[in-house]
Design a protein that fits this description.
Layout: E1 5-6, H1 20-26, E2 37-43, E3 48-53, H2 59-67, E4 73-77, E5 82-86, E6 91-94, E7 100-104, H3 111-120, E8 124-130, E9 138-142, E10 145-146, E11 149-152, E12 157-161, H4 168-177, E13 181-186, E14 191-195, E15 219-226, H5 232-242, E16 245-250, E17 255-261, H6 265-275, E18 278-282, E19 306-307
Antiparallel strand pairs: 1-10, 2-3, 3-5, 4-5, 6-7, 7-9, 8-9, 11-12, 12-14, 13-14, 15-17, 15-18, 16-17, 16-19
Helix pairs in contact: 5-6
């Protein structure tokens, strides 16, 4: 929200009018005074100069005198020789570029007064349009940049520096004109505090590596079908010889299951296949079909049901 903001304070400077002797020496040759200046006084309250001239000095002559120094005749009493002029003023207008201004100095403004005005308002001369003292010097200046710095992220408070000892009313007007919420202005230091938008919190995403722990079962189960007519003892012996342990055996279907160490699964499978006692071997419970045992069918025959061996240590 708060980028660099241009700020200049149009401080009106008053210049004392030169003495009558200096007036005659520095006035252009086109102006030949026909009056005498008896005295000059400055009214700071009304920003006017009261000049005492020869009574009945003409209005035209008084105007010509004032124009030499950037003063305008606003009131006069010829019978009393009282003439009232506006004070010379420094005027500021827009510049040719962004963040620039044009400063118009009154005729015969001293170099020290000009430098004091520029320094006091933080203005830097870019170029001089004219340096004619009789007409008034004109300068293009770079305006000071106000660069806010975030000093309280939680509350969104920013700090910036402007020229010190500026009228607080002028600072307040500048802030309102630019849509700035001014918190305070410290005149001796030129420090201002501005209420800005509260910055959005910055979140840091921490990506932790995912550790996958693979649990390897200690035992695997194999399913098989034995040759027709295989006895329980033969099935148990065949499985144990291959490195496994008989879990179940059904003499009717010749189907059996065996528990084998997971690490020896491959060698047990090879041993069972090499035994010649099985017709099918699978790791799935439905992988091997049942067979019909001829010895378990027929008249007067006895059917052997499923058999689960006793647990052995």
């Amino acid at each position: 929200m708060l980028g660099a903001v241009s700020l200049t304070v149009q401080n009106v400077a008053a210049y004392a009018v030169i003495s009558p002797g200096a007036s005659a020496q520095t006035a252009p040759t086109s102006y030949t005074p026909h009056t005498t200046i008896y005295g000059i006084s400055i009214d700071r309250t009304n920003d006017v100069a009261l000049i005492a001239m020869t009574p009945f000095t003409s209005e035209k002559l008084a105007i010509a005198f004032g124009q030499q120094y950037g003063m305008q005749l606003i009131e006069f009493e010829p019978a009393f020789g009282r003439y009232v002029f506006t004070l010379p003023q420094i005027k500021i207008g827009p510049g040719p570029e962004q963040h620039e201004a044009t400063v118009y100095f009154p005729p015969f403004a001293s170099t020290s007064d000009i430098n004091s005005f520029l320094t006091g308002n933080g203005l830097v001369v870019v170029s001089w349009t004219t340096q004619d003292d009789a007409q008034g010097r004109v300068a293009v200046v770079a305006l000071p940049q106000v660069k806010p710095v975030l000093v309280n992220p939680t509350q969104g408070i920013w700090q910036a520096n402007v020229m010190p000892n500026i009228d607080p009313a002028t600072i307040a007007l500048w802030a309102r004109t630019n849509g700035i919420h001014l918190i305070s202005y410290t005149s001796p230091t030129g420090v201002i505090l501005i209420q800005g938008p509260k910055p959005k919190p910055v979140y840091t995403i921490v990506r932790r590596p995912v550790t996958t722990t693979r649990i390897v079962p200690q035992n695997a189960t194999l399913y098989m079908t034995f040759q027709p007519g295989t006895s329980f003892a033969t099935a148990q012996h065949t499985i144990q010889a291959a490195g496994g342990q008989l879990s179940t055996f059904n003499s009717t279907t010749e189907q059996a299951s065996a528990s084998v160490p997971y690490a020896k699964k491959g060698s047990v499978i090879s041993g069972l296949n090499a035994s010649g006692a099985i017709t099918c071997l699978s790791t799935s419970a439905t992988g091997c079909p049942a067979v019909t045992n001829p010895s378990s069918t027929g008249t007067g025959g006895t059917s052997n049901g499923g058999t689960t061996p006793p647990t052995t240590d």
